[in-house]
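Long-time lurker, first post.

We've been arguing in lab meeting about whether zinc ion would sit comfortably in this protein at all. Half the group thinks yes, half thinks no, and nobody has a model to point at. So I'm putting the question to the forum: if I give you the sequence and the SMILES, can you give me back a predicted structure of the complex? Inputs are below. Any interpretation is welcome too.
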Amino acid sequence: MPELPEVEVIRRGLAPEVVGRRFLRVAVGEKSLRRQSPAGELRRLLEGRRITGLRRRGKYLLFELEDGASLLVHLGMTGRLLLIRGPSLALPHTHVTFRLEGGLELVFQDVRRFGQVLAFPPGVTPAPLSQVGQEPFSRTVTPAWLAAQTRGRSRAIKNFLLDGRVLAGIGNIYACEILFAAGIHPATPVAALNLKDWSRILKETRRILKAAICKGGTTVSDYLNSRGETGLFQLELMVYGRAGEPCRRCGAAIVRIVQGGRSTFFCPHCQKSPAFVTLHK
Ligand SMILES: [Zn+2]
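Top reply:
Settle the argument with this. Predicted structure of the protein with zinc ion, as tokens:
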């Protein structure tokens, strides 16, 4: 599932190609995504309008248009946004095709259809963005700010990192990698973390997200960038998807547990929990 780095890689690939161009025509497939504006609305709000900016918020891409309208795209679990030169190739699982000036086509493919393609009229802030938390690179986010967000809650640090209403864009892969790098057991209750722990978590969050963006993202199943290429960060994963394999740092076997219905991977030797906390797994 694409997370912040993958969406940022797509944004960086697309922006120089699409900003400044107009949407000429929007074509929708037979099967709609689970959240998709009606075809008529996409056409009415996009066709003929020039793209003035392409931003990312969390895992969302926001195309800003000259009249103040906008197009919000979320890749869901298996979504791909491919930029193709020349006539459309009729790719399978294509849900929306945006024809742009300059002979370009922006194609949204999604096998599982959890993606979102939503158009918003001028002056309307896309509602889904109100649920998006702070960007991990934002100056607002400090160790003290993170600690303050946990007040009154006793959940595990892994689930806290996955909560997109606090920190935007971190999914299962990067949450596991961040906690390994910070040396923190994923089941540690957030209440047990001190400012030094938060400082380490934040530092590693930024370092890992940055490194993943530089490597073109992580491809473990479906993710491709806008040119149809896989990422390379999967080669650098320390724990994610490595249950039973030796830790690259200490040689202990990587363990898989389930937290909040999602797999968590960690090294029981490198990732310690505070001594006074009893962990079930
Ligand atoms: Zn280890």
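For your lab meeting: The helical segments are 4-18, 39-46, 143-149, 157-162, 172-182, 195-214. The two ends are 26 Å apart (CA to CA). Whichever side wins, do check it experimentally.
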